[in-house]
Amino acid sequence: MQAIVDGFFAPLGATAQAHIRDLGDGRGIGVREDEPVILVSVVKLFIAWEFRRQVEEGLVDPAAPVRTTAADRLGGTGTAGFRYDSHISVWDLAALMMEVSDNSAADLVTARIGASSLRSLPARLGLKGTRLIGPPRTILEDVARDLDVSDLQALAHVLSAGAVTTAELRATSAWDPARTNVSTCADLTAFMRHIWNGPEPIAGDLRTWTGRQLTGGRLSRLAPSEVQVFGRSGSLPGWLNEVAVWEWPDGRRHAIAVSAQPTERNFREVELAMSRTALALTEAMGR
């Protein structure tokens, strides 16, 4: 399998890690599946699961209104790019976090569930290759410190002005698996199996949110039309991730995780290689 996967990425100047797991019996196939991969926005899947668990246990009121202000905005989609202050239920913030990868919503949901609960989640689920530091704001604050920038507003100005080189940016903690939110492809497919086989109210809502992802779809480009796809992606310059579940008409269900590290500006070609990898993994599982 490694030769096949490397054959997709090596001509593109990229490397990759990948894993597929049968959601029924748990068997899997992988390529460098235990190597650390930076989560980026895939961390939102963990935030969503912990939020939904706490709602189910009565620890969080899903209808509680949350006021979003300029101080919460990180830039980007959803509330992160709002022009005006607003009041939104924490449930709808979770949906925005998952469906449009809203970074500010991820911060606000994490504030409700508690960052300590997020950090303890991998140990509770036995995900030994996963370490969760915090939501997007925490990661960006670390980057600001690394660059000796006073705050996130100043960081946004520095980045928009092009005052930081690519090399300087990639030397920060956000690009370092030892200092940011990290997992492995094997852990990610194990987590998806835990979600899909968990209590139906929680599993059902996670399926709904991952089924509505508007950004990503990297692994599904070559998926057969009859396959139902659920997923969550994450991106940094030089890092492209996605974890997904493919549900087949015959009842098979596969969790697939692929992470790629391109060295050139050929993201579309690398994303296509990620989808080729997903398809090759499913074919290997079917043999």
TrEMBL record:
GO MF terms held by the record: beta-lactamase activity
Keyword entries, A-Z: Hydrolase
PANTHER family in UniProt: BETA-LACTAMASE, BETA-LACTAMASE-TYPE TRANSPEPTIDASE FOLD CONTAINING PROTEIN
Classification via SUPFAM superfamilies: beta-lactamase/transpeptidase-like (SSF56601)
Transcription is among the record's keywords: no
Domain Beta-lactamase class A catalytic per the UniProt entry, residue ranges: 18-258
Name assigned to this protein: Beta-lactamase class A
Organism annotation: Glycomyces artemisiae
Family annotation (InterPro entries): Beta-lactam/transpept-like, Beta-lactam_cat, Beta-lactam_class-A
Keyword Hydrolase assigned: yes
Single Gene Ontology BP annotation: response to antibiotic
Pfam families (UniProt xref): Beta-lactamase2
